[in-house]
Amino acid sequence: METSNPLNPEKPFSQEPLNNKNSEIWTERYRPKKFEELVGQDDIVKKVQNLTKALNIPHLLFAGPAGTGKSTLALIIVKELFGSTWKENYLELNASDERGIDVVRQKVKDFARTKALGNVPFKVIFLDEADALTKEAQQALRRTMENYTSTCRFVMSCNYSSKIIDPIQSRCAIFRFKLLEKKDIEKRLRLIVEKENLQISDQTIEALYESSEGDFRRVINLLQASASISPTITAELINTLTSTAKPAEVKIVLEYALSGDFLKAKEKLLDVMLKESVAGTDIIKAIQKEIWNLQIDDELKVRLTEKTGETEFRMTEGSDEFIQLESLLASFVLAGKGLR
Ligand SMILES: Nc1ncnc2c1ncn2[C@@H]1O[C@H](COP(=O)(O)OP(=O)(O)O)[C@@H](O)[C@H]1O
Ligand SMILES: [Mg+2]
Known about the structure:
- This protein is of the alpha/beta class.
- The protein is about 50% helix and about 10% strand.
- It folds into three domains: about 25-175, Rossmann fold; about 180-240, Orthogonal Bundle (Helicase, Ruva Protein, domain 3); about 245-335, Up-down Bundle (Zinc Finger, Delta Prime, domain 3), CATH 1.20.272.10.
- It is built from 15 helices and nine strands.
């Protein structure tokens, strides 16, 4: 937008639009818009691209970890299918946001009542986080899918396909997304770095990748957070922002426990968790790694690794983090005494 410049009418002031570019969230700005821009999921992209070209997509189930391109691929499909009319032909629902399956069914019904516009014979419904639906809700969803097969295709995403009931799985073509590898992330990351005029070293890319664990959303969010502090992205900056448990500190906790000093171990653990505000699940990961650096025999390492895995599972199921960690430390104490 331009306004007249009283000092020099030849050169009007340029006005940044209110919704200025810098306030945009980078995961949206750099969300791939074409099949070719997706990295690391080549087989899936090739198959889905062919189906889309033939205007012949079955119901699809995208299974896999967060930030690997599931929602992005669903959007690319509808944009390819419908071009400029994609918004009229696409309904996106998030199973964990919608209040119950009845809301989902009503929305699907309203949307599916009218025919698709243009030459594609169906509309597309994207149901994100379908594994958040209960088994009963999934049964209801399956009937809804059957009722509207002639006018709609469902694309569903989930973390674990095992949480989706068999009758839905068998109606879908299932695609398993994998965690992104360093080379995939690096390729696209360098492009973003260049477009945003940032500087980054190979070592920092490694640090970004390490802390993301193959989740591209995390990589981009970390990059944006770092860039808001400095255009030169350093590994120290990344580490400050992620504040993961420091291996040396975790090692001290474990050594106290193995030497039989439960109270000191517990005190130190609390210290790490509160001072560094590290999440329990991150501590568990650090413990898992540190076990293999301890001066203990391998059999004990294996047993402790197993225990740690159990604790992690309970934690992700929603059990209190500190209580779980304390109980894990107790196992370490017993193991140190040769009692377990
Ligand atoms: N395979 C990929 N290739 C390129 N960018 C990706 C890929 N996966 C994720 N991203 C980036 O991460 C962000 C989140 O991806 P998204 O598709 O929403 O993940 P999810 O698998 O959780 O649905 C996207 O905006 C995109 O910038
Ligand atoms: Mg998603």
